TrEMBL record:
Protein's recorded name: Transport permease protein
Pfam families the UniProt entry points to: ABC2_membrane
Highest taxon, organism lineage: Bacteria
PANTHER family in alphabetical order: NODULATION PROTEIN J
All residue ranges annotated as the ABC transmembrane type-2 domain in the record: 54-283
Subcellular location, record wording: Cell membrane; Membrane
Record has Membrane as a keyword: yes
Biased composition (Low complexity): 13-24
Segments for region (Disordered): 1-24
Keywords: Antibiotic resistance, Cell membrane, Membrane, Transmembrane, Transmembrane helix, Transport
Membrane-spanning residues: 59-78, 90-112, 133-161, 167-193, 200-220, 258-278
Assigned protein family: Belongs to the ABC-2 integral membrane protein family.
Length: 284
């Protein structure tokens, strides 16, 4: 029979509570773990698209409809009848900028819908960085944007698009569009987290999209616009992106418009990304 020896504490000695493990702070998740979480969430979002192919409808059909619509409806009026091939080289790089805006709008609607379904509440109970949920969403949407851009360029080549520079300039134009589109997604994620319904997100997004898209150099040269509107287009980030992509593909000065586009992308991301992550943490 074994005996247990109990050692009594000296009289007057303070009693110490058993040590408890310190809680792990959310912000202390390492970079490697964060990247692993992002990868797992990207895979989950990609599998969702595989299970619901209809969610790719906008990325597949939108570029086809837009380029056919603008080339055959506005091409003759802007470039002259029979010169649609000239307008194809003008409008296709501009539509690359437009693709980013429309895909970004879908991100905000999707985030809002995920909260309604309770998916995001489940993610917030997991020991993962809150930013990884949003970054994974952006990574998948950038992939959708790449598919939309590839379809747009494919249709452009069928309609007479020509590359007057080089293949590497074309890749640079695509990369610039992806960077700017990813920055816009933070704006629409913030809208999706701030507004109550998906319809409200879509309505607010259209109020932002319409003036930026049509008050730019995407569809027509700005020289024919009134002075006040031409001034607005000079500061419109979509004009800078459209001009950058257009000059990278057709040839022309690119330094100013490229740096302006990258500057806009940096400012938008730095301002809205922390706000979106903070809103994601606090949203009820």
């Amino acid at each position: 029979m074994s005996t247990t020896t109990v050692t009594k504490s000296p009289v007057g000695a303070p009693r110490t509570a058993p040590a408890r493990p310190a809680p792990t702070a959310e912000g202390r998740i390492g970079l490697r773990a964060n990247l692993r979480h992002i990868g797992a969430l990207v895979r989950r979002n990609a599998l969702q698209i595989k299970q619901d192919p209809e969610s790719m409808f906008d990325a597949v059909m939108m570029p086809i409809i837009f380029i056919l619509l603008f080339v055959y409806v506005f091409g003759g009026a802007i470039s002259g009848k029979g010169n649609n091939d000239v307008y194809v080289n003008y409008v296709t790089p501009g539509l690359m900028a437009m693709m980013g805006m429309n895909i970004a709008m879908a991100v905000g609607v999707g985030i809002n819908d995920d909260f309604k379904k309770g998916v995001m509440d489940r993610f917030r109970t997991m020991p993962i960085a809150r930013s990884s949920v949003l970054i994974a969403k952006i990574v998948v949407e950038v992939g959708r944007m790449l598919i939309a851009t590839a379809i747009l360029l494919g249709m452009g080549f069928l309609l007479g698009l020509e590359i007057h520079t080089s293949f590497f300039h074309l890749l640079a134009a695509i990369g610039l569009s992806m960077v700017f589109g990813a920055s816009l997604m933070w704006i629409f994620i913030l809208l999706g987290l701030s507004l109550k319904t998906a319809q409200a997100v879509q309505g607010m997004a259209m109020l932002v999209l319409m003036p930026l898209q049509f008050g730019s150099s995407i569809f027509a040269p700005t020289s024919s616009m009134p002075g006040w509107l031409e001034t607005f287009t000079d500061y419109n980030p979509l004009s800078n992106l459209a001009d950058s992509a257009r000059n990278l593909i057709n040839g022309g000065p690119v330094a100013h418009s490229v740096w302006m586009t990258l500057g806009w992308a940096l400012v938008i991301t730095v301002v809205t990304a922390p706000l979106a992550v903070a809103k994601f943490r606090k949203k009820t």
